[in-house]
Amino acid sequence: MELTHSLTATFRAQFNADPLLICSPGRVNLIGEHTDYNEGFVLPAAIDKAIYLAVGPRSDSQLHFEAVDLQQSYTGSTDRLTKTNSWADYLLGVVDQFQKAGLATGGMNVVFGGTIPIGSGLSSSAALENGVGMALNELFNRGTVDRLDMVKLSKQAENQFVGVQCGIMDMFASMMGRANHVIKLDCRSLEYAYARINMAGVRIVLCDSRVKHSLAESEYNTRRAECEAGVKMVQAAEGDTIRSLRDVTMPMLDKHLNQQEPLLYRRCAYVVQENKRLLEAVNHLESGNLYAFGQLMYGSHEGLSKMYEVSCPELDMLVDIARTVPGVFGGRMMGGGFGGCTINLVQADELENFTNVMRKRFLARTGLETLLHVCQTQNGTHVL
Ligand code: ADP
Ligand code: MG
After folding, report:
1. What is the pLDDT of residues 147-166, one digit of tens each?
2. Closest C-alpha residue for ligand 1 atom 7
3. For residue 169, which ligand has an atom nearest its CA?
4. How do the domains of the chain map onto residue ranges?
5. CA 26 to ligand 2 center in whole angstroms
6. Which atom of ligand 1 sits closest to the CA of residue 68?
7. I need a labelling partner for 183 at 20 to 30 A (CA). Which of 13, 94, 171, 204 fits?
């Protein structure tokens, strides 16, 4: 691959040594949105867009990082890890977590770049963190750090060093993914199971609305609070066995919220139904019924748009257009909402038509260019 060759060449020229090469993928989430913080299920997969890192140990304690995509570099030391408020924090944060966990670290050289669109919701940040974790594991810990521990270290790096309060799904999917599989992850227990998805002749296509409405963050916090408020009301009536929306059923919502708090009812009902959709969707995967799976993706979008109200006109339009194109199994907005990408399952032999129609109609209706990213599932973070 051209990128790994050029990273290797840059590494050799700079450090006069051969690097170890690591591939760390981005991720998509097929269904299960806004369920993670409600102790529900998500269904992510690692994709064939990744961060690639050329890494090697140093004899001193210096850290040399080079981000080839940004044409920027960073030099520091493992003795003193200070926040930079830049991309380097994603690497430093992982070194910091390894140190705090009592694992070995040392001076190292890292030259990295990637094919994941940055900041589009495909988790370039988690991919980068996992790649650094894998580097530290291979270079200084003889590969003995458990994958799940690396997932947790990456998450803590982003929470504590970078300062983003994300959940664990992104790191989990990037590290634990498998080609031709999705991961059914229980966000309450972190139990997980792989479900096979037959990707022969199928592509995952992201349509980037390229908008990011300023509402995103405040509405995210509002939704979390609304879910908590709903849980409190059900708990007051049903008792302390109700700890999260995971414990709540539709009959409970009908009884305790529908009349009393119609807005909270809609929010909570969406989450309860989304978990149900996800479990159904996994069954459809097992019987190889991508068509039925896709219908549930549309159902997810409908709920996110009408009941949870985190979509926006651009995302709704992308899903509306996709519905009319032949060879589309299903689609929905992906991520927190108010912008970002839709995710679509598309028959490979209809891809060209899909691409053309999406571009043309979205432009005609909004005056905006959509960016399409076509991907496949692949294995999680690994040494090449
Ligand atoms: P996402 O994870 O959805 O792509 P984030 O905002 O969480 O978006 O993370 C993006 C950040 O991760 C970038 O601003 C940058 O600091 C870092 N990053 C990701 N990919 C790269 C890259 N190829 N080169 C340098 N930094 C990167
Ligand atoms: Mg991220």
Report:
1. 999 999 999 999 999 999 88
2. 125
3. 2
4. 2-198, 202-375
5. 9
6. 24
7. 94
Please give the distance, rounded to the nearest whole angstrom, from the Cα atom of residue 132 to the centre of ligand 1.
13
Residue type, 89: D
Closest CA to 40 of 165, 186, 234: 186
Instruction: Choose the catalytic residue: 170, 240, 254, 316.
Output: 170
What is the layout of strands, in order, in the sheet containing 62-67?
A: 72-77, 62-67, 108-114, 44-57, 20-29, 382-383
Copy the structure tokens of residue 109: 């050289």
pLDDT, tens digit (0-9, with 9 covering 90-100), for 192-210: 999 999 889 999 999 999 9
**Token duo for residue 324:** 């009319």
Q: Which of 87, 61, 50 is nearest to 72 (CA)?
A: 87
Cα separation, 369 vs 384, whole angstroms: 35
Q: Which residue has the tokens 């009408």?
A: 306
Does residue 79 have an active-site annotation?
A: no
Task: State which CATH number among 3.30.160.250, 3.40.50.10750, 3.90.280.10, 3.30.70.890 fits the domain covering 202-375.
Answer: 3.30.70.890
* Cα atoms in the 13 Å half-sphere on the side-chain side of 336: 23
Report residues whose beta carbon is within 6 angstroms of any ligand 1 atom.
51, 67, 69-70, 87, 90, 113-114, 118-125, 128
pLDDT score of 213 more than 90 = no
Overall pTM > 0.90: yes
Q: In the structure encoding, which two tokens stand for residue 250, read together?
A: 């539709």
**pLDDT value for 165:** 85
Ligand closest to Cα of 117 equals 1
For residues 50, 202, 173, 224, the Cα torsion angle rounded to the nearest 10 degrees is: 110
Closest-CA residue, ligand 1 atom 12, reads 125
Residues present in the chain in total: 384
| Reported confidence tier of residue 216, pLDDT bands at 50, 70, 90 | confident
In angstroms, the CA 317 to CA 329 distance is 17
CA 118 to centroid of ligand 2, rounded, Å: 9
Distance 378 CA to ligand 2 centre (A): 19
- CATH 3.30.230.10 for the 2-198 domain, yes or no: yes
